[in-house]
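The records we work with from here on pair a chain with its fold. The integers have meaning only within a learned vocabulary of local backbone shapes. A complete example follows; check for yourself that the lines match position by position.

:::
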Amino acid sequence: MKSLIIFNPAAGPRRNWEALTKAAFALEKGGWKVEVVETESSDEVYKLAKEAASSGYDAVIAAGGDGTVNGVVNGIVGTETALGVLPLGTGNVWARQLGLTSANLFLGLPDAAKAAEILLESSTVKVDVGLANGRHFLLWCGIGIDALVTEEIESHPAVKRRLGPTAFVAAGVITAITFLGTKTIFQFDGKTIRRRIILAIVSNIRLYGGMIKIAPYARLNDGLLDLCIFKGYRFPHLLHHVYSVFSGRHLSDPSIEMKQVSKLTVRTARPFSIQVDGEPIGKTPVQIEVKPQALKALIPPTCPPELFSRGIQHIPQI
């Protein structure tokens, strides 16, 4: 397996270089041919991944957080090069969804070397990706308060690196107190619905934020995205939603709607922020669609089988 590791040292704890070295050694010991490049630029992550795909690499491994994963995805989507990941970021949601790490989000650090050993046993599988205003996403597209919090955090990278997931909690509380919902129009499958919302999440996976099953019926190869609409206007509504989600009651909560869509247009009465995979991409309106099985990904044996419909269509590793 000829692979390129794209390492983002700014994505997580300062000890990441040591963890990366151990992970790369584990891959080489397993017979993979490994090259490592370092960058802190999201644009360069995309360019490096795209160049690797053009040069015939079997896999590009994102060694960083979900933003690094997103950059790699956008560089290799639609090619024969597969996505791999080493959990060296803040949230590591894709790695958590695949079972590559179960470290406590706030107290533990993922074992990147162990994740590399698991990655060696992976199969190459085609998975869906989303597309939001021209930007591909693997995890989700958030519209509303979570995207505004993401903008705030990404504008203070040193704070994010020092506090990790706690930075998102703190920024979320501060933002939520004054945040107001807005009238929103959703158009999908020939239907139009109007709601006043605080947040909408269009998800390709089940996990959100590393620990919440926001879309428990999402699958990675069903050609659909799961839309979760959080209705309301002010802080009390948001508190209700937080309780509902953490208690697992959001699927039966009348103030939260779940839909499955293949194409979606979202327009808001006032501009709402948008994020994909934890990366800010602008303001509404937004056009979203699924690209069925457009990405090859390294799926380890730890991945829950229910994430795939019709079984996992394995492609042998080279």
Remarks:
- The chain has two domains: 2-129+293-315, 135-291.
- The mean pLDDT is 89.
